[in-house]
Amino acid sequence: MTPTHYLLLSALLFTIGTVGVLVRRNAIVLFMCVELMLNAVNLSLVTFARIEGSINGQVMAFFVMVVAAAEVVVGLAIIMSVFRTRRSVSVDDANLLKY
Amino acid sequence: MGVVAQAGAALPPPSGVLAQQSAEMPSIQYAAVAPLMIVLGAACIGVLVEAFVPAGRRWPVQVGISLLAVLLAGVFLGLHAQEINTGATTLAETLAVGPATLFLWGTLLVLSFGALLLIADRSIEPGGAFVAETNSVSEGRPPAGTPVDAPGAASAAVMDRAAGAVGMRTEVFPLTLFSLGGMMVFCAANDLLTMFVALEVLSLPLYLLCGLARRRRLLSQEAAVKYFLLGAFASAFFLYGLALLYGYAGSVQLSEIAAATAGSLRSDTLLFAGLGLVVVGLLFKGSVGPFHLWTPDVYHGAPTSVTGFMAACTKVAAFGGLLRLLHVAFEASSWEWHWVLWTVAVLSMVIGVVLGLTQQDIKRMIAYSSIAHAGFLMVGSITLTDRGLAATLFYLLAYGFTTLAVFGVVSLVRTSEGEATDLSDWAGLAKRSPLVAGVFTFLLLALAGIPATSGFMGKFAVFSAAFSAGMAPLVVIALLASALAAYLYIRVIVLMFFNDPDPNGPTVSVPGAFTTAAVTLGVVMTLLLGVVPMLALDWASVGGFVS
């Protein structure tokens, strides 16, 4: 496989994540789709690093992982607090803020 | 910052030999990054205070630490402004501090000082606007099936009583400082990776702050979830753009991307896809145009003081980052993406004004007004001239003060159930409290851009800079939009002055010292910058970004 294939795979994963965020209802699943997008980016970064022959992209992937971990902490805390008051994590139920 | 610094050291030069890189400490120009280190250091101390200081004494300690830290950072900024104005890159070239960045830092520090005053206020809402300290009681109580889903009033009152309505959660102060630190890094980042990390450092605390309102818990939590999910979605776009630009330029350094746009062997698809995705991430944060969907909901649901902080400071940070990116990295390719951002600017103005006219809630209306203002800021951002840059920086400063004071005033008008944000509640406010109505009128006129207010000077500077940069059609659209937007504000003014108050309507709280100080700061600066704009315009024109 040439590196280009990995880039295509990464674009595909990113698209799946994007579509997932747009069509799914469950906040946790939405969140997982965002994580999928981040990991698709990681694949891109590592592939580009391979093409460049430099290690920068791989180091960046670590940064992305750390940031994603921090995001999980905050995100799950928020989703948990909503679940406690609403007994539901569906984003369709959260409909108080609108016109 | 330590993390960024070390990783900067671990990154080999792009020529890239894989093995045997000895990690050496990057040199740090402490004078340049002192304000940043003070703010982030104080945030860390704030976390320790949460852990070790008894609950009763936390509030004064936290307020003291955070206000002092922002003041001290401002003093350091002032002391070193002269020597750094020539520009300095530090921390292994991850941060570039120059005149424009210093101006943005100054803006952020002053605005967040005002926002911290609003956040610290405990006089308007007894105990403060944030969830109470002994929150576990209320959190555990709603059993399934009880009507806790009623928005706001009833359930919030029940929860309040359960919580005993004592002091408030003081985590908000370190969270605000972390967010401020992230914003400062964001405006100074010299590579996209630092920018991404800063973006998250500024966003994650904001997501939490949005969900911490004492009243109307459900609205507040809903705002937090929406902001978080959409924010994470947008930062994923930013990140993918980063990866594509890395593939295009072989580096994420802004200066090397700029060099690559002058002539790279790689396909332009990578460049424009990458640029587009990165800019989408930034436009989201700045609540511009078609990426604004979160703005009204989050401004509405978040505690009003936090909304003030978001509206003023996040906008400065997002536009600071955007300006920096466009000026440093993508100036050479500007004629290819120019028209896209033209469209975005027009869309943002139109969406802000037209949808703003249909709103029935004062916080949502101000949110749409901020989207329109983001459109005006875009006009200045895409001129890519020094004059346009100075004008946009000035606009950011002026708008920040005004919007901060606006949210300060919004928090004063209350019923027994909390803030009265519905527009109908504001009818006849002038008969109840002429002073508050007068101040609010002045602020709304500043938002509309009436002469003798900072809003007018900001718009004048931005539009004339755009005009001289050859963007006459865009300026005409912007003028039309601001004329239409004036109706948005005058509607509220008429409502306050020429309608009869509802006898059961809201009362105007007498603000405590903190809110009074914040609103006064905003009003005085709005007037001052409108009468003698040269105070800030001269400083904004000192120079551009360095890389």
Automatic annotation (TrEMBL), chain A:
<comment type="function">
    <text>NDH-1 shuttles electrons from NADH, via FMN and iron-sulfur (Fe-S) centers, to quinones in the respiratory chain. The immediate electron acceptor for the enzyme in this species is believed to be a menaquinone. Couples the redox reaction to proton translocation (for every two electrons transferred, four hydrogen ions are translocated across the cytoplasmic membrane), and thus conserves the redox energy in a proton gradient.</text>
</comment>
<dbReference type="InterPro" id="IPR001133">
    <property type="entry name" value="NADH_UbQ_OxRdtase_chain4L/K"/>
</dbReference>
<comment type="subunit">
    <text>NDH-1 is composed of 14 different subunits. Subunits NuoA, H, J, K, L, M, N constitute the membrane sector of the complex.</text>
</comment>
<keyword id="KW-0874">Quinone</keyword>
<dbReference type="Pfam" id="PF00420">
    <property type="entry name" value="Oxidored_q2"/>
</dbReference>
<keyword id="KW-1133">Transmembrane helix</keyword>
<feature type="transmembrane region" description="Helical">
    <location>
        <begin position="6"/>
        <end position="23"/>
    </location>
</feature>
<protein>
    <recommendedName>
        <fullName>NADH-quinone oxidoreductase subunit K</fullName>
        <ecNumber>7.1.1.-</ecNumber>
    </recommendedName>
</protein>
<keyword id="KW-0813">Transport</keyword>
<dbReference type="InterPro" id="IPR039428">
    <property type="entry name" value="NUOK/Mnh_C1-like"/>
</dbReference>
<keyword id="KW-1278">Translocase</keyword>
<dbReference type="GO" id="GO:0050136">
    <property type="term" value="F:NADH dehydrogenase (quinone) (non-electrogenic) activity"/>
</dbReference>
<keyword id="KW-0520">NAD</keyword>
<dbReference type="GO" id="GO:0005886">
    <property type="term" value="C:plasma membrane"/>
</dbReference>
<feature type="transmembrane region" description="Helical">
    <location>
        <begin position="28"/>
        <end position="49"/>
    </location>
</feature>
<keyword id="KW-1003">Cell membrane</keyword>
<dbReference type="GO" id="GO:0048038">
    <property type="term" value="F:quinone binding"/>
</dbReference>
<keyword id="KW-0812">Transmembrane</keyword>
<dbReference type="GO" id="GO:0030964">
    <property type="term" value="C:NADH dehydrogenase complex"/>
</dbReference>
<comment type="similarity">
    <text>Belongs to the complex I subunit 4L family.</text>
</comment>
<feature type="transmembrane region" description="Helical">
    <location>
        <begin position="61"/>
        <end position="83"/>
    </location>
</feature>
<keyword id="KW-0472">Membrane</keyword>
UniProtKB/TrEMBL annotation, chain B:
<dbReference type="InterPro" id="IPR001750">
    <property type="entry name" value="ND/Mrp_TM"/>
</dbReference>
<comment type="function">
    <text>NDH-1 shuttles electrons from NADH, via FMN and iron-sulfur (Fe-S) centers, to quinones in the respiratory chain. The immediate electron acceptor for the enzyme in this species is believed to be a menaquinone. Couples the redox reaction to proton translocation (for every two electrons transferred, four hydrogen ions are translocated across the cytoplasmic membrane), and thus conserves the redox energy in a proton gradient.</text>
</comment>
<feature type="transmembrane region" description="Helical">
    <location>
        <begin position="365"/>
        <end position="384"/>
    </location>
</feature>
<dbReference type="GO" id="GO:0042773">
    <property type="term" value="P:ATP synthesis coupled electron transport"/>
</dbReference>
<feature type="transmembrane region" description="Helical">
    <location>
        <begin position="225"/>
        <end position="249"/>
    </location>
</feature>
<feature type="transmembrane region" description="Helical">
    <location>
        <begin position="434"/>
        <end position="454"/>
    </location>
</feature>
<keyword id="KW-1003">Cell membrane</keyword>
<keyword id="KW-1278">Translocase</keyword>
<comment type="subunit">
    <text>NDH-1 is composed of 14 different subunits. Subunits NuoA, H, J, K, L, M, N constitute the membrane sector of the complex.</text>
</comment>
<keyword id="KW-0813">Transport</keyword>
<feature type="transmembrane region" description="Helical">
    <location>
        <begin position="510"/>
        <end position="537"/>
    </location>
</feature>
<keyword id="KW-1133">Transmembrane helix</keyword>
<dbReference type="GO" id="GO:0012505">
    <property type="term" value="C:endomembrane system"/>
</dbReference>
<dbReference type="Pfam" id="PF00361">
    <property type="entry name" value="Proton_antipo_M"/>
</dbReference>
<feature type="domain" description="NADH:quinone oxidoreductase/Mrp antiporter transmembrane">
    <location>
        <begin position="189"/>
        <end position="484"/>
    </location>
</feature>
<feature type="transmembrane region" description="Helical">
    <location>
        <begin position="269"/>
        <end position="294"/>
    </location>
</feature>
<dbReference type="GO" id="GO:0008137">
    <property type="term" value="F:NADH dehydrogenase (ubiquinone) activity"/>
</dbReference>
<feature type="transmembrane region" description="Helical">
    <location>
        <begin position="102"/>
        <end position="120"/>
    </location>
</feature>
<keyword id="KW-0874">Quinone</keyword>
<feature type="transmembrane region" description="Helical">
    <location>
        <begin position="61"/>
        <end position="82"/>
    </location>
</feature>
<keyword id="KW-0520">NAD</keyword>
<feature type="transmembrane region" description="Helical">
    <location>
        <begin position="306"/>
        <end position="327"/>
    </location>
</feature>
